[in-house]
């Protein structure tokens, strides 16, 4: 088990210790107002942890507190892990960013694209461009999520069993085949829409590598990085450390336990979701962010070359536009002015347009249960925030956290 602790005086790495305490006070306010079950935040600079903030419960009903070894469902913070796996295969020459995915996933050989109509009666046309690897990595493939509820194709996903999860009984291969039978929202590469693309990417990793996704993650990423408590389920002996999952009570906004979705991470899943299936600890995921900050290497273990990480953390949206311009309104708790999208991460291109004190070049993502992380190469900073409140659009936690961290960075 990785020990997570403050290992540097904040002043030595340019942080004001008193200002950092504003993080604690701010999120303790969420607890006082009974809006969050509990939280844990990690702020590091130059590879050293300068601040840990935590309070509240990992399980309110059992009276169990948040601790540094609490296990969390990271949901879509699984996506960067899957993206790293895919880019490892790119580096090995096994697949190219421009390759059509149908070369390995023949079910996507002849995709059709929605043109008009409803989920009951819709018109489609053949795709004019094949779905390519970079489309999956950037969410520009034309895929979607059923939970968006903004488009007729979203309804088809829900009818097929893809809402807040995967169709029961389907493994990852079956999920890929089922998704391939549904129409695309748009021609590949023409728009951005947050989607199951990273789940299809996970299937691609399996086929190209010849290993199941859990095996690839364990052998090629988690074991080398020392992330021994990250996987598609918590170790049976550690289930008491797995945080309970909550949603806001519709009337009071107080955390309301949701054990149906909270089953994620407690048992082995049928589908290994590269888009949202992992559980992890703060110590483990902190090591993943440090590997990214250091350009693909940590403690002598290199997963990716620095040029690959820089490519992943660059805006790949055509013309360098931002998500607010190129994307479709969907799930976010805040606008995406000034943010582009790279190969698995959001990328901050214009802090002024984004109205944030964060640095240009920051790359980041979060999870459905209000978790988040970011990596800031310009300031050598990483930040990690963990809680278990679904959905992430409940409160502007990520926007607030950015301001709280950067107001404390004074040197």
From TrEMBL:
Sorted UniProt keywords: Hydrolase
Start and end residues of each Beta-lactamase-related domain: 23-400
Molecular functions (GO terms): hydrolase activity
Species name: Amycolatopsis orientalis (Nocardia orientalis)
InterPro entries for this protein: Beta-lactam-related, Beta-lactam/transpept-like, Diverse_Enzym_Activities
Protein name: Serine hydrolase
């Amino acid at each position: 088990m990785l020990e997570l602790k403050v290992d540097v005086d904040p002043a030595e790495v340019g942080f004001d210790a008193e200002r950092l305490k504003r993080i604690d006070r701010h999120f303790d306010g969420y607890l006082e107002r009974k809006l969050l079950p509990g939280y844990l935040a990690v702020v590091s600079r130059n590879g050293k942890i300068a601040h840990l903030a935590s309070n509240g419960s990992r399980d309110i009903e059992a009276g169990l507190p948040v601790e540094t070894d609490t296990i969390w469902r990271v949901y879509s913070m699984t996506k960067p892990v899957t993206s790293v796996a895919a880019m490892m295969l790119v580096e090995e020459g096994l697949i190219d960013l421009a390759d059509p995915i149908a070369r390995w996933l023949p079910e996507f050989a002849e995709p059709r694209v929605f043109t008009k109509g409803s989920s009951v009666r819709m018109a489609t046309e053949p795709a004019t461009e094949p779905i390519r690897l970079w489309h999956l990595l950037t969410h520009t493939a034309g895929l979607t999520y059923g939970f968006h509820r903004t488009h007729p194709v979203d309804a088809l996903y829900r009818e097929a069993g893809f809402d807040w999860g995967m169709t029961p009984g389907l493994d990852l291969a079956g999920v890929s085949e089922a998704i391939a039978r549904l129409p695309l929202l748009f021609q590949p590469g023409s728009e951005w829409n947050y989607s199951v693309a990273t789940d299809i990417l996970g299937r691609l990793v399996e086929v190209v590598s010849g290993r199941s996704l859990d095996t690839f993650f364990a052998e090629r990423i988690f074991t080398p990085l020392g992330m021994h408590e990250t996987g598609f389920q918590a170790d049976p002996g550690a289930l008491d450390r797995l945080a309970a999952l909550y949603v806001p009570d519709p009337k009071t906004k107080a955390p309301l336990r949701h054990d149906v979705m909270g089953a994620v991470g407690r048992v082995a899943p049928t589908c290994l979701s590269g888009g949202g299936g992992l559980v992890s600890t703060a110590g483990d995921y902190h090591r993943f962010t440090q590997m990214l900050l250091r350009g693909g290497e940590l403690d002598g273990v290199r997963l990716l070359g620095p040029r690959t990480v820089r490519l992943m953390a660059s805006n790949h949206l055509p013309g360098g536009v931002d998500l607010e311009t190129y994307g479709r309104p969907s799930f976010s708790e805040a606008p995406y002015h000034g943010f582009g999208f790279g190969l698995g991460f959001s990328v901050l291109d214009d802090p002024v347009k984004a109205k944030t004190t964060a640095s240009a070049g920051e790359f980041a993502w979060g999870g459905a249960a209000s978790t988040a992380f970011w990596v800031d190469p310009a300031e050598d900073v990483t930040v990690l925030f963990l809680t278990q409140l679904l959905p992430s659009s409940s409160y502007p936690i990520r926007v607030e956290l950015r301001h709280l961290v950067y107001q404390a960075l004074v040197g």
